[in-house]
């Protein structure tokens, strides 16, 4: 979709990377580190990451979430959250076992589970209609507790959680997380939680799974600088877990990349220690853009789901474009409207236009839009979509 967007000079609301920089001081530190006398910053760093970054990660988790970690033994810096995920799955998931994951599923999960020789068992989020238990009055997604419990079996070795969730923007509630915790008490199941959007929550609260009673000892928590500080190109992520679990993650990590880029690490440490105000401002900006995009798409006649977190929201094109799949819609959108977006069916294990089920009759008409682009790009995209949908209505 990004290639199509470039070809047609489309406003790219497809791929989720921001087109604005993070905190200036953070960028300056990274640049200074490259020119540091003695050039140590341009060589391999310690296997688990620079101590100052691990200290800053521990301090940040303790301050914001009360999640206490030993920076020496319980934190490892990785090449983005992507490597932390792959290393956790390769290090902790037994060949032939099953890994339960929420669906729609971020595409790195099935790939890593496949590499580990395990099977991904998807649990599809449920569509909650506006008139059911939804105070904000719009359709939303929620954990399907019954389906989740049914997906667990003696073969389950791990659960992959992602909250705030890509691609739906869902933030799992404390009650849902407690439900999951109750399901696995007394088992050996490991939980790998992907929290890369932890700073980007607009409604509700981000609850780290590791902070629930009894869950710390079995949880690997993954986060990243990418979405927190607008540096998706730096690929600085981290895994946090009790020493025994983390040792297994690091054993896999050291043969994937050995270490990540050194000069970015002091810069990210600075941001974790000092960029709180920037983070709050960025979250507020995203919240405004999310609301503007959601309202615009609703005005155009699409059904728009609640998106309490992340960079993304989902709309159903069915009311506007009956009979058209999201794959076809998103394929013609860059050329016909000058805007790019992503069909949600690419995040489903069974993919494709046949992807339907009883809780959401039309997964194949759902489209993911990002709202992390600058105000000008967002305004251009909305204007173009307005003209495009108006023309479609007149036809
Ligand atoms: N997990 C999720 C849910 C994501 O959306 C992304 C980025 N799109 C990642 C992990 C990867 O993060 P990183 O760039 O730090 O590897």
From TrEMBL:
<protein>
    <submittedName>
        <fullName>Aminotransferase class I/II-fold pyridoxal phosphate-dependent enzyme</fullName>
    </submittedName>
</protein>
<keyword id="KW-0663">Pyridoxal phosphate</keyword>
<keyword id="KW-0808">Transferase</keyword>
<dbReference type="InterPro" id="IPR015422">
    <property type="entry name" value="PyrdxlP-dep_Trfase_small"/>
</dbReference>
<dbReference type="GO" id="GO:0005737">
    <property type="term" value="C:cytoplasm"/>
</dbReference>
<dbReference type="InterPro" id="IPR015424">
    <property type="entry name" value="PyrdxlP-dep_Trfase"/>
</dbReference>
<dbReference type="InterPro" id="IPR004839">
    <property type="entry name" value="Aminotransferase_I/II_large"/>
</dbReference>
<dbReference type="GO" id="GO:0016212">
    <property type="term" value="F:kynurenine-oxoglutarate transaminase activity"/>
</dbReference>
<dbReference type="InterPro" id="IPR015421">
    <property type="entry name" value="PyrdxlP-dep_Trfase_major"/>
</dbReference>
<dbReference type="InterPro" id="IPR051326">
    <property type="entry name" value="Kynurenine-oxoglutarate_AT"/>
</dbReference>
<keyword id="KW-0032">Aminotransferase</keyword>
<feature type="domain" description="Aminotransferase class I/classII large">
    <location>
        <begin position="12"/>
        <end position="385"/>
    </location>
</feature>
<dbReference type="Pfam" id="PF00155">
    <property type="entry name" value="Aminotran_1_2"/>
</dbReference>
<comment type="similarity">
    <text>Belongs to the class-I pyridoxal-phosphate-dependent aminotransferase family.</text>
</comment>
<dbReference type="GO" id="GO:0030170">
    <property type="term" value="F:pyridoxal phosphate binding"/>
</dbReference>
